[in-house]
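Work Package 3 (structural annotation) set out to generate three-dimensional models for the target panel prioritized at the project kickoff. During this period the team completed the workflow that converts sequence records into discrete structure tokens, so that structures can be stored uniformly alongside our sequence database. As a representative example, we reproduce one entry of 177 residues exactly as it appears in the project archive.
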Amino acid sequence: MGEKVMRFSDLSGQLAPDPDQLASITIVEHPDVDGLVRIDALPEELEALGKMALKAAILDVRMPDEEEPVRYVVTTANFAKLATDKPIAEVLEGAERVSGRRRGAGGNGEARNHETLEWAGTPHKGKTSPEEARLVRENLAVINERLAAQGYRAIEPSNPEHARRYGLDTPIPRNGD
């Protein structure tokens, strides 16, 4: 007996005549979604997407006295208006290159898992899981070294917010204690 899999567009509910021809959409950031999600759509449903889209700049802005950056999405034309000394193209050409600064996703587009040494302690919105807090407590020096290399703030046990978030005021049990 054979089996046939039928797939549908998540956008319209229409049956996909050829499931291998569905377009895959990864929603990287949306106010109603926590983390990355993926949906499928028929290619013809996405034809108008190019006309709807804005040419945008996505900016993470951290003010001097703020712990977390605020994300702004602005048109490239509006962003260019901020540059008053020279054209924005020149400003961007001379900009410092940074790595590892994509919030919400790793450089390969995969979701960050803050319950791993690779991402634990990296600033993010949302709750800090007990596993992430444990990793930070047990590997603070290593994590702070990684954070500095990525251009993030260090985790300071003397910072009340950091102490609360990562349980840094809780003694770390030592082997044999």
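The beta strands are 23-27, 37-41, 56-61, 70-75.
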